[in-house]
Amino acid sequence: xxxxxxxLRMWAHSWKRFISIAxxxxxxxxxxxxxYAGCRDAFRSTDRFFDAQGLxxxxxxxxxxxxxxxxxxxxxxxxxxxxxxxxxQEVTFDLDxxxxxxxxxxxxxxxxxxxLQEGRMPKKAGEIAVTRKFIRDSGKRxxxxxxxxxxxxxxxxxxxxxxxxxxxxxxTDEAPSFPTKLTIVGVVLDPQNLSNPDGYSAMTSFRSTATxxxxxxxxxxxxxxxxxxxxxxxxxxxxxxxxxxESYENTVKQVTDRIDGxxxxxxxxxxxxxxxxxxxxxxxxxxxxxxxxxxxxxxxIDANRQQFNQQVDQIVSMQAGAAAAGAAANGANAGAAAAAGAxxxxxxxxxxxxxxxxxxxxxxxxxxxxxxxDQAQSQLNExxxxxxxxxxxxxxxxxxxxxxxxxYVQDRQSLGGFSALKSxxxxxxxxxxxxxxxxxxxxxxxxxxxxxxMVEEDRSLIGTYVGLGYGRLAVASxxxxxxxxxxxxxxxxGLIAGFLGIPAFLLVVLxxxxxxxxxxxxxxxxxxSLGIALFVVGVLAATIYACVQEMRMTPAxxxxxxxxxxxxxxxxxxxxxxxxxxxxxxxxxxRNIFRFKSRLIMTVGxxxxxxxxxxxxxAINDTVADLGIKQYRDIYQYDLMVVSDDSDAxxxxxKVASDGRVTSSLDVRIESGDLTVAGSGDxxxxxxxxSGSESIQLVAVPEKHLSDLGExxxxxxxxxxxxxxxxxxxxGSLKLDDDGVIVxxxxxxxxxxxxxxxxxxxxxxxxxxxxxxxxxxxxxxGSDVYVSETYYAKLFDSKDAKNTKNxxxxxxxxxxxxxxxLAKLSGSDTSQTDYAESLEEDSSVMKAVSxxxxxxxxxxxxxxxxxxxxxxxxxxxxxxxxxxxxxTNVSERVREMATLKVLGFFDRxxxxxxxxxMMILTVxxxxxxxxLGRLVGGMxxxxxxxxxxxxxxxxxxxxxxxxxxxxxxxxxxVQLFVNPVLDRIDPISSLKSVE
Length: 995
Fold this sequence. Notes:
This protein is of the alpha+beta class. 55% of the residues lie in helices and 14% in strands. The protein contains 28 helices and 23 strands. The strands form 4 sheets. Strands 3, 4, 5, 6, 7, 8, 9 and 10 form an 8-stranded mixed β-sheet that branches. A 6-stranded mixed barrel has the order 14-15-21-18-20-19. The radius of gyration is 44 Å and the shape is elongated. The two termini are 27 Å apart.
């Protein structure tokens, strides 16, 4: 019992060490669990919301719309649980200028159901539900009325990147049509886009992929048309998996592979054949209708000609009869004359025809009538020939005028809102996995320092207990239980902060960016227990090491005072010119710093670690702040990128040229595709065994203008370095040629691609081909892949191209259409932004992007909030570390401080004597921590491995200053706590002999 009481008394006496260990554990566990818990809570709540609203697992779109046959084929695919055919239509309306919206039919099969936030769901024709963004922008409310106008291109049934916008119907299917006079009855949240319209980042999202300004949701009542815009699918077993886990992606990928493997190709061909049959049927119908009209016209002409001939024949007969009567009157008797007059004479055909021509020529009326009949016949013949030629031309052009139908099979990653949320959370979770390691190392170092000093102070007592027969384990348990209790209490508080405090902070930031209904904080027993266990093991290991170091001596040796450290010279003493100019107290300080190596290492190491953490946090902030400027002002030299449909490419270029704003330009072809690396382990595919896929922007450059690409984009080769770093080559030393493609660094880093690697490219038509990477270009935002016109043709038009059943046939192969333009503009940044916005109003322009606007609007708010959190926690850790080290320093030098007081040192002089050593050690730690922080910050590229983003780590000089000043400020703050401890040292009691 006395042993226990003494142990508790010892614990109470060492309360400062207890608090230090508990605080370090608290901070470490909070960092370890907090960021993880915040991201996990967001992941889980979003996954529940997606499951409740039936967010589609797979979406199928087609450039020619989807028919009932397509929907039936998708239902037969193995692994598909539900299929929902969807209809939509793009409309425009006046809202402080022309605005566009997508009228979306609310599905009846439970897929992609909007989440009701206010009012009720629409049920009747003409009723709609709108998003909160529309309510905010328009000022309208529930009950307001709105009139919309279908766009001229509203029959466009394509809604996918890379679609060419063509829309053909088969003569029986009709494009969707929605009511135009609308009434707002509800406000809903679109499950495909969780962006918060009222959040602080609503206007700064750089990953928005919306093709229209708003989405209106309408019931099936009042919607007409049998042609579907898209088909959405739910996959069997996918709802049981978390949508953000790899297991979910694998489950969905099995179904998308099946669709791509057989159904896609068959239905593409079948749909095109339907369009061809419909075209042929129209031609046949047109020919039949024309033949009928021509036959009717010919019958009318024939009837008129017959009537004309009868009239002429009557005149001929009359004249022939009169001639015969005159001849008889000159004869012998009147009886013969009477007989001749009673019978019309018989004329041969030649005579009759001669008389006909004579009669017609003699009569102007008959002449005009004959000319009209001949002219009508001639015109009819010409019309027949012209119509037949036109129909034959249409027959010949039909096959080429109807393009190959293309399907686009997409998963949730293709949804801009989903991928943005996933990228944000993944990046923060990566930081949450990296930073706790530093906290754990610092915790172990500080625990070793604190517990070693605690054990050393009790060495005589330990010797006594061991001499009295107590086992070494029993004696060590005094300190092990002390450290364990400190860890458990600190860890418990850390779990509260980690599963409540930090997640609450992160979720407040997240809710400023995204709307996540049903969000709640949850506790993970396994992860929380493992988090505490990790720090318990580390701290107990340090405590065991300290105990073993002392208890390996005999009890007699332990009960004697520890022999003072043998005097020795330090390196500075050997540098006489310097040493001789140092004062007495300076020499004492130098000896105290460098003779006690453990204290030096622990103090400098602890301060360096905390400083490095602060530098790392500030490095992330500096890196993210400069991403937009570096990409859109340094790498992209052009000011404007304009993209159009293939059919509008010429009109787009004419429009831009006529505006007179362009100083130089480059026509290119831009397609959305994929870059895939399949791990082979042979080194030809990037990293050995690596695999993955990245969405890319495939940019084809005309062969005659390959050299002009360097004027629009800074071509600068990069090479992979150690620990995720990269080396950047000379600007302009990279050239695009016909031997390979140039891959953006953001994509290459994510997939482990390097110069010489072989990758699989998928172009906008879904054609796949294996390409060689000739170089990796410096690129921070987006994933561009540059390819020459010749190499593009070699990849996607050759017989060696992968997926040949989807590739163009030789008869369909044609020259590339340059559907995009990179241009340099005159004028200010504001005028360039306004010009890009005005271009998007033009019907020939699909998308116009101003680099000036992108550079100014690029923000990553969530990362900034996490950086602030990390810097705050790192600062707290620095404060605890300095407090622990300062108190340990004072406790092991009590007799020295007492001696100084006996010698006549005033309290202020004692403060200066001790604090000067701590400040020097702190400065040394800061000097070491600044480059260490830059080194660790350089490794963030590996931790922050996000799609379409490469973090080119940069630390501004001001960040170094802030980190150094913050650490020194913490050291000064600690002095305010340590000085009273120095003042309370009693020289008499402290200098008593320990014997």
